[in-house]
Amino acid sequence: MISLAGRDILHAWGKFVFTGLGLGLLIGVTLSMAGIYRGMIEDAKVLLDNSGADLWVVQQDTLGPYAESSSIYDDLYRGIRGLDGVACAANVTYLTMQVRKADSDVRAMVVGIVPGGPGEPGHPPFLVAGRHITRSHYEAVADAATGFKLGDRIQIRRNHYSVVGITRRMVSSSGDPMVFIPLKDAQEAQFLKDNDAIVRQRRRTAANPDFNRPEVPGMLDAVIASQSSNPYVNAVLVQLAPGRDAQSVAETIQRWKRLKVYTRPEMEQILVGKLIATSARQIGVFLVILSLVSAAIIAFIIYTLTMGKIREIAVLKLIGTKNRTIAGMILQQAVSLGIIGFVVGKIVATFWAPHFPKYVLLLPGDAARGFAVVVVICVLASLMAIRLALKVDPAEAIGG
Questions:
Q1: The Cα angle at residue 59 between residues 175 and 226, in degrees rounded to 5
Q2: Among 84, 237, 285, 387, which is 20 to 30 Å from 158 by CA?
């Protein structure tokens, strides 16, 4: 039996191929949306991996330091470091802001770390160029996605920093590249007020009669000194001794230090289940809409192609071709169109994924599931055209 689907494709191969290309672009967008969702989850996991922490100690009753604001005293790490089961503890601050370079700026997460080397909590685990921060002030390590180069001078708040190292894939949960600076500088950038605000606050304090009582000498000086200091950090990152249970150590810190402590699974649940949950649902709805649009387009295309060969179908019926054979031919054409579209979509998605501002992760498993969905959509979309073909009267082959 002559394949009607194959003959029709060869007869109008240009129209069929260009239709597949258009469908492929739509499928490519669908695969890219799935990749964006996977990239968001991967960014969250990379953020936790690169922190080098087993536990996150934050302000009580908060989901800090990533999902909510957290502020704790910077001397608490000493007591935590002395607890049984704790191998290392280090302060860290996080601040998402615009980092300036000359006349341009970059959205980045500024991370304050204690100067040292790799392996310390909070430090980037590796560099692609340069060295780690070794001084207490005015040095920075930047992610390559910021576009900064070694030796660049960047501005964070009122201070300027020299880029001494370049790292890669150090991003926040929202995909912003990281810039690492010394902890003291980061505390100043995040918690300390600008000069004018400090001067105004000192004047207000000096004018307050409660701070000028003669029976409490030195109170005014003490208050002014406290306003010039910034003894806060966002979290303490804790590394455990080998073989120690994270949950038991976390309970010990919470009991004795009156702070909130999150383990790795708990922090991952916060980032994935809470911080990016709304974005994930939005992407899910968009994927459903794209799938419905793809199904409608395929159904319309197959229906239009079938309408254009009503006479040929009538001839086949007149010579005794079974309905099952005719339905199979239309189904083959629909599936062939879907396969062409999927191949084109996979190629274009792979090509344009690196050019997205945020990380796009295209997993083979998602591609396999996407292919199965495309085939199912093609099968369902062909039902309308098959129904039309089966209603064709053989007499139309003579009457035409």
A1: 105
A2: 237
Give residue 21's pLDDT: 85
Alpha carbon of 50 to those of 4, 168, 301: distances in Å?
A: 58, 11, 49
What are residue 7's phi and psi, to 5 degrees?
-65, -40
CA dihedral 134, 106, 144, 124 (to 10 degrees): 40
**368, two tokens:** 């396999």
| CB-based burial label for 57 (10 Å; 0-12, 13-18, 19+) | buried
Tens-digit pLDDT profile for residues 141-174: 999 999 999 999 999 988 899 999 999 989 888 8
pTM of the model: 0.78
Residue spans of the domains in the chain: they are 4-44+277-399, 60-192+230-258
pLDDT digits (tens, 9 = 90+) for 119-145: 788 899 889 999 999 888 899 999 999
Token pair belonging to 246: 């994270």
Q: What is the DSSP letter of 38?
A: H
Q: Per residue in 366-389, is it b (16+ CB within 10 Å) or e — as a string?
A: ebeebbebbeebbeebbeebbebb
Phi, psi (rounded to 5 degrees) for 132:
-80, 170
